[in-house]
Design goal:
Length: 123
């Protein structure tokens, strides 16, 4: 399995947004969508602001693959579910810390969207 370099982790985690381009089942790419990204240790995570109704999230769940771009880093990635509550607790904290200045209107839905947490794995 490929891992992130420390430089990639830092650059992506410091970026305000990550551009995610999910791969459809037919092999074509959807339109890129900006999402918030957070780091926990050597892993990067995203969630759907719209919860399980988010179109990009549903596409990712079906294909498990796509492309990301953030902080000058562009990568083909796979997406893994994160059912672990302990990890999700840390991701909640990471969202509150990184994006708290946007207030509860935006951060609240991200913290509530735990069921949509996906780990980004470089390919």
């Amino acid at each position: 399995m490929t891992t992130w370099t420390s430089d990639e982790l830092h650059r992506i985690a410091e970026a305000e947004e990550l551009e995610i381009t999910p791969l459809r089942r037919d092999g074509t790419l959807r339109t890129p969508v900006p999402v918030w990204v957070v780091r926990d240790g050597d892993d990067l995570y995203v969630r759907s602001f719209r919860g399980t109704d988010g179109a990009w999230w549903r596409t990712v769940r079906a294909s498990r693959a796509g492309h990301i771009r953030a902080g000058g880093v562009a990568k083909v990635v796979t997406f893994a579910d994160v059912p672990d509550d302990e990890i999700n607790d840390r991701i909640d904290t990471a969202y509150r810390t990184k994006y708290g200045r946007y207030g509860g209107t935006y951060v609240g839905p991200m913290v509530s969207a735990r069921a949509t947490t996906l780990r980004l794995d470089p390919r």
